[in-house]
Give the backbone structure.
Amino acid sequence: MTTGQLMPLMIAIPIVMACLILAAGSYLPRVVTDILATATAAGVAGMAAALLIHSGHSRVVTWLGGWRPARGVSVGIPLVADPLNAGLALLVAGLVSCALLYSWKYMESVSGRFFALMLLFLAGMEGFTLSGDVFDMFVFFELMGAAAYALTGMKIEDKTAVQGGLIFGVVNSLGAYISLFGVGILYSRFGQLGLPQLGAMLRQHRPDALVIVAFVLIITGFLVKAAMVPFHFWLADAHAVAPAPVCVLFSGVMVELGLYGAARVYWVAFGGTIPHADVTRAFIVFGALTAAVGAVMCFLQRHLKRLLAYSTISHVGLFMMGFAVLDDDGTAGAALYVVGHAGVKSALFLLTGILLNRYGNVDEHRLYGRARGDRLTACLYFAAALGLAGLPPFGLALGKSVTEDAVAVAGYGWAPVLFIAVSAVTGGAVLRAGLRVFGGLGPRPALESTAGAGEESTGGEEKPETGGLPRTPVTMLLAIGILLAGSLAAGLLPDAGQAFAHAAQRFTDAAGYISQALSHAGAAPPRPDPAVAWTGEGIGLDFLSVALALGVAFLGLYARRLPAALRRSAAPARPVIAVLRQVHSGHIGDYVAWLFTGIASLTALLGLPLL
Amino acid sequence: MSRSARLVVFLIGAGCVAAMFAVAFFKMPAFGGSMHLYRDLAVPASVSHYTANVVASVNFDQRAIDTLGEETILVASVIGAAVLLRPAEEEAEMRPKAVGRTLEATKLAGYLLLPVTLLIGLDVVLHGQVTPGGGFQGGVILATGLHLLYVTGSYRALDRLRPLELFDTGEAVGAAAFAGVGIAGIVVAGNFLANIVPGGTFGQLLSAGTVPILNGAVGLEVGCGIVVLVAHFLQQDIIISAQAEQAKPGGSSEPQAGERVGTAERS
Amino acid sequence: MSVYPYFVAAWLMLVGGYGIVRSRNLVHAVVSLSVAQAGTYVLLLAVGYQRGALAPVFGSTTKPNKHVVDPVVQAMTLTDIVVSATVTALLLALAVQVNKRQGTPDPDELQALKG
């Protein structure tokens, strides 16, 4: 067996195991199901690690069913692994393993089916990551969707859960169908679906209206998944209600997969025809807007999971800016940022899950001072929260400094300011919540909503997900520990930065991807790897964002004690905040209306300059 | 947003999208034209594997992983529906009362149609490689056929003849078999989902290699999956809602549920 | 009218979106989503059509030849239909539960997720 055969196995084995658990679920003791599911995910992680090592030398390509291409066209579907998507596949499997380990006491009423769905979700994400065919990507996109919608709505006793699941399902599926519409338009002219074939054909092509419309429609589905403003509304609703281990997968990697899909499709298929400068401008605008809106909304939340969800939105905006500069540095930084973020954000979601299961809700105000005695949980929480704010040596801090530098070098000098502001505000919000919940700091917050009745989700009615936890199980703490250690490793391992640089260099080498997929030629790297490492300036900016985050946290805690004049100076912001809150209405019709407006603005940004 | 504000936002967006569509459509090859690159490749590829139905060849041979993904979506949706439509903590399942009646003519038609429908379903599954049809279409016909029991008899008759556990297992076995055939391809030919069974005679029942096997797996999975899916919706409507109706008189969120029990239930 | 079928597809996609935006019932919203998806079926099949060509199924009367409509879009449409049917079932299950938990299927009256 060659390494190429590992890729389909990473998709097929979780499916087979999910079916086994489904068929035998009611006969197996719970603990066997737990172990079987976790071991499957860990096995896939092992395969992904092997794939990552092999793809470091040369891309791994396999044409399924042996339908190899001839003269640049094929009837088959390729799976292609370069270090970046092999690493993403490893991240997917690793997070699923941690989430399953954490879930050993979870969801007792539906245990077998919960694990089966998690494994199908894993299969969908691996398929999407590895596929080199645009229609196949749509199929796996919908597979991860179907599993994710069901996982979101799983707590049927919770009225918000089913609503969040439905919103998530409708908006994401509509996005997927719009993508498929774009695939149809593209197919009408080129008659191929594989990314390498399309890339080879489009390379000799002028970017006319058909190409641009097809591109916009195809990436719309991916940007919906990536929660770019104004496609982002579903995310907060879905994250707020999904069980904590599911949130880990949503925030840690599913949203980022949307970004990966957009970047992959652009680089391989459209990179040779739609000018880079054009795409950079459009994606920077979308990314910056997303980062800003997400950060403000994050700070306004008291529902802990919603708070983390908005922080994810705002970070995805920053990742998008990294990809948007379309060079090796930006891509390497964004990839590193994604990995570092996955570790700390996942740990935070799992810690919130522990709070929910021990204290019965996830409302920052109701939990005030409740978790004071819980030293270990508190330590883990503050480590993760400071990591989110950008504390070195977490991988997130390295990724952030590399990305902000790359964006600034690309001509957006204001980018570091945005990066630091976003890190400070989101990190500050998470720290503020932690100081209240674990430390009982600041004046006791009011329980009733300050935003007016019914205008805010408080998280006070969230239903626990386990049957009561007198103390935190070791498996849960172990999962959190692994996640934090992973994020630290991404920043501390001496060769990590260089590995990411190499992965980014391979990812942006579309010509190599195409020639290797179509002719199996071993492509030599056309340029040297960029240097990705800690710099003095980067570390300084990281510490600045941590210090600012602490400032923001204390400002949040003690805002009422500020002098009246200072508080009055914030008055002009109030109407803006009120409007922002109202826009996030939990209404499916609103979200779909915004979705169409988003497509229109993306087209305007991309297409109009080319006219 | 108010309804009118929402409409304005949508119309602005949708108007621009409509314009985009129009611009792209005029650049597309004209409808009905003869330029189809993938077709020109797929037809010989299908013939080379002795598959008379080119669509089946694309679905189960050339692009078989799409179908693996698609069937897995079915599994995920069926599990998801089962999870979402389970009785909630405060609800309990109960046997529905036997009320209502069925016309004799309906019963007769149903009982006559049942074997015919099941046979047609099997036929469509088995001939997927030579005629239009295949596992999905046949599976849906099979599942529909079984529900003739519900139309002609009663929910209880259907319930007795439809051990859900068995159908759950059938669905899982079908889906696992598809992936298993794929893995067998790696073992035998070194390629996932390779067509490893001898091709047979073009246009005959025994042809197209693994295509009929995969069709059979999909037929089993879809047939069982749809039965399970419909069963959960029926249970929700007939058994669980009936309970909620009695537990909270007047407080029910779905006033028609009780009436529907009356009309849907015949003994 | 060499582009007319494409406009039918676009119309279905947009009118499906309109249906969700104006929906007063979540079941209606889910079905509107299926209407939008029907646009993709029409587009794919229209793209693969060829005037005067036969169905891509050969037998004793039709020997294999390339004068057939595109089988690939038909296969894609079949996949698409299965996806639509199953995802619709899942979304309807969610809609049933929303109705049960919140006492109304009208998206205008759902209040649970705000801000």
Observations:
- Chain C touches chain B through 58 residues (CB under 8 Å).
- The mean pLDDT of chain C is 90.
- The longest helix of chain C spans residues 71-102.
- The two ends of chain C are 48 Å apart (CA to CA).
